[in-house]
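Review form for a predicted model. The reviewer records the input and the model, then writes brief findings.
Reviewer: anonymous (R2)
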Amino acid sequence: MPAVIGILLDSTGYRIMATLHILSAIVAFGPLFLYPGLRKAGETQTMAAMHMRMTFPALVLLWVLGMGLAGMSEGAYELSQTWLALSIVNWVVLIAVSWFLIRPSITDASESAAAKLAAGTGVTHLGLVVGMVLMVWKPGL
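Model under review:
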């Protein structure tokens, strides 16, 4: 089956979609590494704008492109596969953390907000690692 999967997933359209999927992951997760420094510099409005205009939409696009890749795989990848199901669960957790933990704490100057932002970015970084492991090793395939 691996040789068949290689043939199915070797089209130009699939490669373009995969490239866009990876780029959306970079845009979704990259700025979070800057948040602690931006917060210390008092750039909370910059962080808020970046999060809602770039980071969060890229996280949504990550899912759209990922589902597109699964759909383009002509049955090689199905939602019932462990790695893909866990990837979706991981993505849902990341969306929830981004919306309910990171977003409200960006412009709040309180210590509890700083702790929530730190926790949210930490969980997001962990989610990034989990997602990368799932995408590279594809357990259950």
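Findings: The chain has one domain: 2-137.
Further findings: The two ends are 10 Å apart (CA to CA).
Recommendation: see findings above.
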